[in-house]
Amino acid sequence: MTAGESGPGWGRRRLRRVVYTADDIRRRVTELGREIAGAYGPEDCVLVLGMLKGSFIFVADLVREISIPLHVDFLVAASYGKRLASSGDVRLLYNPRTSVAGRNVLLVEDIIDSGNTLRRVIPPLLGRNPASLEICTLLHKRRVRLGKDARWVGFEAPEEFLVGYGLDFGEDFRHLPYIGSL
Ligand code: IMP
Ligand code: MG
User: Is 162's C-beta closer than 6 angstroms to any atom of ligand 1?
Assistant: First the structure.
């Protein structure tokens, strides 16, 4: 599929352009996996916590590139609905029952935009006394300064609304193997 193409189930909006191809993403995810594996040791009890729903594809690809033992769980936070800007009202819908205390937690985000989601999610996680807490995000828009920012960033994202590879607009486009802009 190419930018501009539409069909059944693709929603009413068309993509303006492809921003990162499936190959671009594959290469970068491989690099990130190597860097992350190099930062932890095999004894580090890494717990990868993916932020649903947007990170589901990224997490699935990333963990297969991290060559040290780890566990995977997910958090569910929601803020946007069918809008292009964050509402600021971020709700934590699911908190993992996995024990976080003493674990090296790696929070995996699809994209950091306003930072509201991280601001909402990080304090309760820190309250559960992980040994460490780091953030890996596929995309970062660099719109805000965060007290706790991502240690690993896949791409410095343009100021556009991005979809695909897990990212949605009103639930459309998540399944695209590449990232495009609306
Ligand atoms: P923040 O809370 O504004 O930092 O945004 C975090 C969440 O908003 C992400 O996990 C996404 O689900 C969503 N989001 C932010 N920017 C975009 C975008 O460009 N495309 C799709 N979703 C986005
Ligand atoms: Mg979303």
Answer: yes
